[in-house]
Amino acid sequence: xxxxxxxxxxxxxxxxxxxxxxxxxxxxxxxxxxxxxxxxxxxxxxxxxxxxxxxxxxxxxxxxxxxxxxxxxxxxxxxxxxxxxxxxxxxxxxxxxxxxxxxxxxxxxxxxxxxxxxxxxxxxxxxxxxxxxxxxxxxxxxxxxxxxxxxxxxxxxxxxxxxxxxxxxxxxxxxxxxxxxxxxxxxxxxxxxxxxxxxxxxxxxxxxxxxxxxxxxxxxxxxxxxxxxxxxxxxxxxxxxxxxxxxxxxxxxxxxxxxxxxxxxxxxxxxxxxxxxxxxxxxxxxxxxxxxxxxxxxxxxxxxxxxxxxxxx
Length: 313
Description:
Order of helices and strands: EEEEEEHEHEHHEHEHEHEEHHHEE
Number of helices: 10
Low-confidence stretches: none
């Protein structure tokens, strides 16, 4: 194996049979916040990277693919979106993308981990790119579920940019049927939820389980994907709504809305990309359709090393 110039490598465990290695040029931060382990490293190929609880969240070189894919396919659908709520997204990149939309009057970001937000502002300033200074932006440091339970506000779009629901993660109960029911109650009419939903493997089960869980709450649940080179795989996302269906919008209509509503063009997302993202291959469609598991508050589950385990009793 070729040696990294620094002699250091970061190894990410995807599953017990798959590992990803990244040469490390510089260690910017390694430590632990109140809620999770945090590392900020610099790599020669993908630039700076953010790691939370051993799971790579962000690479500087291609983060725009992930964040544009998470935000715009949902936010472009309501006719006149004014209020958006972001759950997680501590780097600020999700907020940055949302604020491209000129119709927005407020963008509220809820993140439980102030330390991570401050570390990203220091070491990854390209993420927010000034978004935290936008007068429309509001940042609150609290538990996303408690915030939604206690707030009567309605939002045109809710974007969930949460970490994977690892067993000890603060996101563990933010992927259950009960939580998605709370989210549904906080959506305006029309309104839509978008969320990151793990890797898209034909033999993977977390994405399909999240999709199945959402189907018990929303009328239109649509999976889509974008290949993110630094993740070495296509990443899965889902939109969920009782009124808005991304499949009913043509590429020209998406392009027209982008031209009218975004303050500047996207690097990755446009109308053609939109229609392609939702065109899943047969094996992925079958994988999603085959899932019957629903995540519930009172049904313990664990998500470790690429495997979702749910207690049946």
